[in-house]
Amino acid sequence: QEVALGTDPGNPDSDGDGFNDLADTSPLTVNANIFWAGVQHLTDSTGSEFDSLDLGIQKADNTSLGGLTATVTGPNGFSYTFTAADLRSWAPGQVALWKTYDSLNPLQTGTYTFTVTDSLGGSVSQADLHVGPQAVAVVDNNLMHNYRRADGSYLFNWASVPSVDRTYYYRFRIYDSPTAEVPVYSGQRDLDTYEVVPAGVLTDGQTYYARVETYEAGTFDLVKNRSRSAAYTFTPQVGDPDSPFIKVQMVNVKKSDGSRVVKMVLDVQDESLLTVAKVETLYTFDLINDFDGTKLVKELDPTSVTTGQPYLFHIFAGGVDYYQFASLTNVVDYQIPDSATCQVEDIGNGSYRFSWAPIAQPVPLWYRVRVTNTSSGATYTSSWVDQSSLDIPDTEMTAALGTGSRSWQVQVADSNDSST
What we know:
β3 and β4 form a beta hairpin. The chain is mainly β and 420 residues long. The longest helix has 8 residues, at 394-401. The chain has four domains: 21-130, Immunoglobulin-like, CATH 2.60.40; 141-234, Sandwich (Immunoglobulin-like), CATH 2.60.40; 246-321, no CATH class; 339-413, Immunoglobulin-like, CATH 2.60.40. It is built from one helix and 29 strands. Strands 1, 2, 5, 6, 11, 12, 14, 15 and 16 form a nine-stranded mixed sheet that branches. The chain is globular, with a radius of gyration of 26 Å.
């Protein structure tokens, strides 16, 4: 898409010299680009709630505002000018500013406009809508674990927060003191309940403080509500054990006949090393009869499981105990896909197109195809997609299924990550 000179909000001609800022050989004295700007409702680890004005600015010297002025205007004449006390040196070339308002002085809902003005009077602005402030459940730092992997990286995992009607996103951050506000490591917002921190980020023998933030959306501009956990304290050591877990899962399943079960899944790197595998207070896996060829799977009567409660998966392998949490959310009654709408088409390029009628629900849904060899029982399972059709190469299916007659079904989930 082409835009007229100076009209692109992401790359304006701030000083009016005929060159867009990113190509200007003689830019403004102070660069005033906005990295992020928004109003968010925060729930902290104590359960207290705050409203927060958050602004990120591109600036070579990230230790002060210098010649910049940063202001926010909002409903009913609201106005605030950021001060040096609000500033944090976030990253090279980035200044972060935030101002919080407690529950006794909440921000009114409505549109807030963030404006950054430079020493020559040039300015850039960005607006955000503050709507629907509400508390977000906090990740329990007592349900976090860390493991050292063979390559020196660290794996952290935690229990997801239960929700009836939302899919939450998580971001994992590490700080070098319990009061630090700028992290030494920050992950991405995603659906995973684990984070792998690359080798070389952490120093053996130094104490760190990790927190998990929970968001209602995966990108900053869409986030309205979030929470932050209490600090999880850890000190990396060369002798820290590795984690054999690949995934653990507890999920409500509605079968094609309408019946319901709770399915528990425990998948580790090498099941042959397991001595004991159990879900504390709930079930001990039969290492032979519950093994489906790739993982341990057990279906339970839903009345035997408590929704919203974190369950501790505990294995004993190679003389070491390992732990990981999973929670069961409340049941949501999604429609069963109508098999009458399911079609398979040979599209002539060595692939088959599977299609079905999508399900109408107020939350995002993902679909996957499971194909079964009707003679051998072997199965092929696709990845999750957020669409109602999927092309699968026949070579992929044949490698898993062999030859012979096949049947298939479409499965539906409210997350494309097994841990959530």
